[in-house]
Every structure is written in structure tokens, then in C-alpha cells.
């Protein structure tokens, strides 16, 4: 009796393992972000652009406040949406229903990142950093980065290589500045 119970139990366990093993869902698959919660692009009408450096234009939607300006050594908490000139969203702090700002270390924000490290820093480039400098808390800007200041010089195996020839459009709002 005990031997037959053991056989049935072993059979049930084996069938369960086979059933689970036949599942075709990849447990390591990262689902694409939900971009339905990303706000519309900032309106650029009736705002005069300023050229910060060649290839980088800034549109100031709301002036910031407070005693601190973003410098090259600060830690800055921002809300950000990065789009291409074709309207494709590359990244947004608002995707997947998120509502919290992200921290940016300005000391490394303008550097091209190692393609073997997947971080949010892959969305940054020299044009982004140049457009961020001088912002204050609460300030809203659109930073338009031409390819030569954007992703034109990144390696072809980088995650953003598909956007090497695109103009990049960053909608930014500074939440907090932590001077260093």
C-alpha cells in the first residue's frame, strides 16, 4: 500500500514538473514600458529658443526659484521625458504610472556610458548636460539636442544606436537640487 502511494505521489510530482517546464513564458523577459501615463510634450509655441551651445536649444516654459542653480557637480532630481523628433518616446520618468523624480549626478551626466552597463545614464549626452546647467528648482525646460551633441557618436552596439541620427527632445522639470 505504501509503495503504491509513493508511486502515485512520484507520478503526480513528475507530471507537475513537466507541466511547469512546458510553460513558454520567459521569466527573464522585461515587458515594454507602459507609456500611456506619459504627459504630452511641452508646448513650444510663443517661446523664444535660446542656443546654449551649437546644436543645443533650450525653451524655458517656467522659470525656477530658490538659491541654487544646476552646476556640473550637483545631484539633481528631475522629471524627464525623452522623445525623438519623430515623436517616439525613448524614456520617461512617468512611464508605468510612476510619479517620482529620478536623481541625476551632473558630474557624469554628459559622458557617454559603457555599452555593457545598462543604466538610465544611457539616455544622457553632452547636449543634455549643457541644457540642464543653470536650471533652478521648479524650472521647466525643453532641451532640443541635434545628433552631433546627442547620440551621433555612440557605439553602434549601444541601446540608443537606433537614435544616432535623430534630434532628441527632452522635457525636463527640476524637482530638487543638492549642491556638492
Features:
alpha+beta; two-stranded antiparallel sheet
What does it look like?
This protein has helices at 2-21, 106-109, 126-132; strands spanning 50-53, 56-62, 65-69, 75-84, 89-92, 102-105, 136-137, 140-145, 168-178. The N and C termini lie far apart (75 Å). Residues 115-121 have low confidence and may be disordered. Helix content is 17%, strand content 29%. It has one domain: Chitinase A, domain 3 (Roll), CATH 3.10.50.40. A hairpin with a 4-residue loop joins strand 4 (75-84) and strand 5. It has 180 residues and is α+β, with helices and mostly antiparallel strands.
Summarize this entry quickly.
The chain contains 3 helices and 9 strands. The protein is of the alpha+beta class and 180 residues long. Strand 4 and strand 5 (89-92) form a beta hairpin.
Radius of gyration: 23 Å
Any guess at the CATH architecture? Roll
Span between termini: 75 Å
- Helix and strand composition category: alpha+beta
How large is the share of residues in beta strands?
25-35%
Q: What secondary-structure arrangement, pairings included, does this model have?
A:
Blueprint: H1 2-21, E1 50-53, E2 56-62, E3 65-69, E4 75-84, E5 89-92, E6 102-105, H2 106-109, H3 126-132, E7 136-137, E8 140-145, E9 168-178
Antiparallel strand pairs: 1-2, 2-8, 3-7, 4-5, 4-6, 4-9, 8-9
Amino acid at each position: 500500500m505504501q509503495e503504491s502511494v509513493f508511486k502515485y505521489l512520484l507520478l503526480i510530482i513528475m507530471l507537475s514538473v513537466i507541466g511547469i517546464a512546458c510553460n513558454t513564458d520567459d521569466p527573464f523577459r522585461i515587458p515594454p514600458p507602459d507609456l500611456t501615463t506619459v504627459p504630452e510634450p511641452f508646448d513650444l509655441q510663443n517661446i523664444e529658443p535660446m542656443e546654449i551651445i551649437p546644436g543645443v536649444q533650450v525653451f524655458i516654459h517656467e522659470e525656477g526659484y530658490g538659491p541654487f542653480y544646476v552646476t556640473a557637480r550637483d545631484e539633481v532630481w528631475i522629471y524627464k521625458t525623452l522623445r525623438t523628433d519623430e515623436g517616439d518616446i525613448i524614456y520617461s520618468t512617468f512611464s508605468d504610472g510612476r510619479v517620482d523624480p529620478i536623481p541625476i549626478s551632473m558630474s557624469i551626466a554628459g559622458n557617454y556610458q559603457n555599452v555593457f552597463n545598462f543604466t538610465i545614464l544611457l539616455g544622457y549626452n553632452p547636449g543634455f548636460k549643457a541644457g540642464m546647467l543653470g536650471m533652478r528648482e521648479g524650472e521647466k525646460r525643453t532641451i532640443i539636442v541635434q545628433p552631433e551633441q546627442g547620440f551621433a557618436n555612440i557605439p553602434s552596439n549601444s541601446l540608443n544606436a537606433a537614435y544616432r541620427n535623430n534630434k532628441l527632445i527632452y522635457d525636463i522639470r527640476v524637482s530638487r537640487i543638492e549642491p556638492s
